[in-house]
């Protein structure tokens, strides 16, 4: 009789412990989030909803692999149906980066080329973020679509680059002090059903303090193949850090090659390609551009000139010295000009 009573008590104790753990996580994460929200409040952030752990567990079947989309170094991504709409759920591994992602995603939600944050859940050990869906999904490291490896046409690649430049310009200029993304790469770009890009993942982003030109870090942050050499050497982050990263991304779009690839024990960087380092700078576009887009532009002088101008802009962005690179707003203007 006593054993039956004991077995009936154990589930209740377990449920109580789980409830208390959710409460502790909510208080810990909520206090950090509230502190950052107050510090970053500027009247431009959009209100978001606070979801419960039970809601997100239900729509992902307890984060079952059947709902899993992809993973990153510091998060997993799932898809589910919530409030009669398809959503993307991002489950972080590291609290500080999750909080930063929430704050800046809120601030960026007003921009049409940033994935809109719908809400978050603070009841897990690390916060989970809930975003609007992006029908076409993400990109592979070489710029193709992740779902079916679809190669994008030249006009689509150019338009995506132009719209991403607009989003980064907004990140740098729309707030009281600039925000630097620091980790732009194909896998943090999602496309909607109309191939409109949505900037995604601000986990590494940082705000430059007032009256300062850069942020001094203790260690280099970002994806190695995209990393600004100034940041790598000095640990300083500025808007020009993003300009360099964006230049590498332009080369990925142009060449349909990942920013790095492994050959045995060697890692080959796209920016180290000898075809991009020709004496005198007379680079032959035919030697580096994706054969698919070269076929597309045959006989189209305007498109051929676009490729040349696109390459020239990418090379300007990846200058070793910060001062030699353009501002992001000028990069955005040049892409608008190229696309005309």
Automatic annotation (TrEMBL):
Cellular component terms (Gene Ontology): plasma membrane
Record keyword Glycoprotein present: no
Protein kinase domain mapped to chain residues: 63-340
InterPro entries: Kinase-like_dom_sf, Prot_kinase_dom, Ser-Thr/Tyr_kinase_cat_dom, WAK-like
UniProt keyword annotations, A-Z: ATP-binding, Nucleotide-binding
GO biological process: cell surface receptor signaling pathway; defense response
Any GO molecular function: ATP binding
UniProt keyword Metal-binding, yes or no: no
Pfam families in the record: PK_Tyr_Ser-Thr (PF07714)
Protein name listed in UniProt: Protein kinase domain-containing protein
Organism: Prunus persica
